[in-house]
Amino acid sequence: MNSPSPLAQTAGSHSSSEAPQIPSNPFAHLDGAADEAQRRVIRYLDAAAAHPEMQRMRSAANEMFAPAPGERLLDVGCGAGEVARQLAARVGAEGSVAAVDQSALAVSVAESRHDGTSVDYSVGDITALDFPGGHFDGVRCERVLQHLPDPDGAIQELIRVTRPGGRVCVIDTDWTSYVWDGFDHMSDVAGQFPFPHPAAGRTARARMVKAGIRATTTLPVTLRFTVPEDAAAVVPFFDDEALRICVQPELTKRFLTSVRHSAERGDFLFAFTMWITIGRVAAA
Ligand SMILES: C[S@@+](CC[C@H](N)C(=O)[O-])C[C@H]1O[C@@H](n2cnc3c(N)ncnc32)[C@H](O)[C@@H]1O
To answer: What domains appear along the chain, each with residue ranges and CATH number?
Structure first.
């Protein structure tokens, strides 16, 4: 289980009697993270993007978002920019995609992978975007709200930069939705992970409706894993480094032993749900 973890910024070691330290979240402050944590985050983004279950979810999200030739679109919290480039291929040379991330590191990685499509990469904060009101035909934001102090403020800003009648698409995880079979201690372990907004995916619809978005459609996509190493590419609960940082050592040991036995028997099963929520900004 060598996949990098989204939560493993600080690398403290614990004696068996020590409570684990609460890690800071490198996804919320990537540029301030230690070098090794930065490398892990980028590796994590790549591993997750390459995973068939994540690709299945993104494919459904792209169909719902339905980018059309000539459109002006925004991907906020773009990470390594993979989705922005997919969108750019759909809008074509007549359209454009702005790919914005708070992290200069993420933006530089995204730029280094530029493929010649019409993507404009820039550093920016979702809570204060550097675009005029009503600038975009569509705005997309994946796995960002769960890391923010004020997800509702972020949604307001997504709406501000979207034209009347344009669409806002929020994709996020519900880390409280996990189910499992074949091994023990799952809920004890998950309870020690300090996600800022673990239910961001499930609550996106209510947040968007409250913010005035109309005609909201929401789709749950359940990602499932039958091999622990495969799950670790997407799910921090199975990542050694994240466990070391977030979870008490004795509990980690019991958990990993049980997971290993489950893998040996061939009955490991873990699933969690992501939510794709899309709606239209009210006409002026
Ligand atoms: C889990 S990653 C998701 C990246 C990408 N959307 C994806 O799905 O691969 C979260 C991203 O949100 C960015 N982020 C965090 N806070 C942000 C903020 N206030 N404004 C813009 N981006 C932010 C992080 O730098 C990181 O690249």
So the answer is: 30-280 (3.40.50.150)
